[in-house]
Design goal:
Length: 136
Amino acid sequence: MSNAKDYRAKAAEYAILIANAEAGSDVRRLQDSERSFLALAQNEEWLADNFSKIVHVPGAESENDSTLDDEDQTLRYLGASVILSWDTIPAKLQNEILENAGSMADELRSPALRARISRALHSCNLTSGIQKRRPS
């Protein structure tokens, strides 16, 4: 079921079952199901009516682009692994990793990205071995 019409049809089926039910507990159970399907129908209608007003996640509508999602997830796992191992990485390599990560942003955002990375590492108490870079 994927639209309000389907949910309303299912609710109508439950209305027929309610009319033919004999036991009170069956009636209550069937009424609960009918109400649930009617609520789902209303939700679907609301979503259809307000779709343009909803905040959408970039790329979420592209179901066929799973390669990008897989690569993104792989990079997230790799980044998390680096963060978890940060204290065991030599200071020279830490500085190189930070430099490379900062240089991936365009020139205007690079200092902001470097600062964000530094704050993230500081917030995890992982920056004990980082040597401060001199401004170039």
